[in-house]
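tokens incoming
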């Protein structure tokens, strides 16, 4: 009867599971009952997917395998429906404000998308050609298949910093424990995020707060998702290198190009942000990423190696560095 109570109280047991493992009759002896054989077999096969998830969901084990702040975050996302609805409303409002203010309305610095100037388009194309500094590096190595457009290093540094940070969000999204709430393709979502950043990340943050669809089958990882997850440390290394290079490039890049010293570049940065819509939008992206990064990592600390949970839990609040730590400490051999 003790096994009956444990199985009945476990949150991992639902109606589907009970069809396969019925409760022990009250008068039955666990030692000789045919049910005891099933239970012993169940507990012996810890390396199967079902048994691992069942044992993980036992209340006492679950409490020991979570840090306090991780449990608190799960309660905030799942426990209080009023709070969850308020968060979703705030996120959808942020999405509306993001699109209206940065794309459509003429009040923010620079030009809205419907009156964009040819010079801005040329700058955007030039920044895209210098994506991750690939073309400048090739030109420096004597390979001139494509000539790098010469732009202000502060503009190039800001652009590549945001894109490098966006690049590292891929493994985080593909290992998000709530990704099954999103019915679309995560491959497409992240690809669009690489071009339009928070235009697509904000809706995902709202949708992932939806109630789980119990009738939906488990999502199968795509090839891109598996690649990004298995290679999370490589993604982190590339993203970190790009972000560090971007900061150094903004300060010291094209030193002989007549762009001045650090003081001149800081002055240009202020002018650039307050006069160009693209640069102004990047500041928004940095602020929003600084919010979404610890939010997502905090809800997925169970994905990192147990010995690194405390480290990642603390570093998640540090922009860029927290995401790098998550990617390097991700337990790719666990069930993600």
């Amino acid at each position: 009867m003790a096994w009956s109570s444990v199985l009945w109280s476990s949150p991992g047991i639902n109606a589907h599971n009970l069809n396969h493992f019925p409760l022990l009759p009250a008068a039955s002896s666990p030692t000789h009952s045919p049910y005891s054989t099933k239970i012993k077999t169940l507990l012996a096969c810890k390396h199967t997917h079902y048994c691992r998830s069942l044992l993980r969901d036992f209340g006492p084990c679950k409490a020991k395998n979570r840090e306090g702040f991780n449990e608190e975050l799960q309660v905030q996302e799942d426990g209080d429906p009023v709070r969850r609805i308020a968060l979703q409303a705030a996120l959808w409002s942020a999405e509306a404000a993001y699109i209206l203010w940065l794309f459509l309305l003429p009040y923010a610095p620079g030009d809205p998308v419907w009156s964009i100037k040819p010079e801005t388009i040329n700058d955007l194309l030039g920044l895209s050609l210098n994506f991750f500094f690939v073309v400048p590096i090739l030109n420096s190595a004597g390979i001139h298949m494509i000539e790098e457009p010469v732009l202000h290093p502060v503009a190039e540094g800001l652009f590549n910093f945001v894109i490098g940070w966006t690049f590292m969000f891929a493994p985080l999204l593909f290992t998000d424990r709530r990704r099954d709430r999103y019915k679309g393709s995560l491959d497409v979502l992240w690809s669009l995020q690489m071009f339009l950043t928070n235009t697509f990340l904000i809706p995902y943050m709202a949708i992932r707060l939806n109630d789980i669809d119990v009738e939906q089958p488990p999502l199968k990882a795509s090839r891109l998702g598996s690649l990004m997850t298995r290679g999370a440390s490589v993604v982190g290394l590339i993203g970190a290198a790009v972000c560090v290079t971007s900061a150094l490039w903004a300060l010291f890049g094209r030193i002989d190009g007549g762009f001045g010293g650090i003081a001149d570049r800081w002055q240009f940065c202020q002018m650039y942000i307050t006069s160009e819509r693209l640069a102004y939008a990047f500041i928004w992206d940095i602020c929003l990423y600084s919010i979404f990064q610890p939010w997502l990592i905090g809800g997925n600390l169970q994905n990192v190696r147990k010995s690194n949970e405390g480290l990642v839990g603390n570093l998640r609040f540090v922009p860029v560095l927290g995401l790098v730590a998550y990617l390097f400490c991700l337990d790719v051999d666990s069930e993600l």
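note: The chain has a mean pLDDT of 83.
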